[in-house]
Design brief:
Layout: H1 5-8, E1 28-29, H2 41-48, H3 57-64, E2 72-76, E3 79-87, E4 95-103, E5 108-113
Antiparallel strand pairs: 1-2, 2-3, 3-4, 4-5
The structure holds zinc ion.
């Protein structure tokens, strides 16, 4: 049986653009005891530059206005996997799960979002 990465953390063989994530059961809540690499704004700009996009104030405001529901993380093979459901800016009752993979230097490797335009590994919706 083939399942989607969103539900199981296993790569979906039918969608080669789905990034590989650990099983959701391996993720832990983000709190002061969880060690993560620092991801700088330069790292965000570096990730987005080849995609010809920049982090806009609109996206920053979504964070400030609490559209980010929570963040969980899992470490695997020297990579840090972040899982973050985010409410949509149109309907706050609807949320999409965002996956971000960061290396141990804080470089963003891959991102995906389960929204219609958030296909991995280079999502920037
Ligand atoms: Zn999205």
């Amino acid at each position: 049986m083939i399942r989607t990465a969103t539900l199981t953390g296993v790569q979906d063989d039918e969608n080669p653009y789905t990034i590989q994530t650990p099983p959701r059961t391996e993720y832990k809540d983000l709190n002061a005891s969880v060690k993560l690499p620092v991801v700088t704004m330069d790292a965000v700009d570096t990730y987005m530059a080849p995609l010809c996009v920049k982090l806009e104030d609109k996206a920053k405001n979504l964070y400030k206005e609490r559209f980010l529901i929570y963040v969980r993380s899992a470490a695997k093979n020297n990579k840090y996997h972040l899982l973050a459901p985010c409410a949509t800016n149109m309907k706050k009752s609807v949320s999409y799960c965002v996956d971000v993979i960061v290396d141990n230097e804080g470089v963003i490797d891959e991102c995906q979002c389960e929204c219609a335009v958030g296909t991995g590994p280079n999502a920037h919706c």
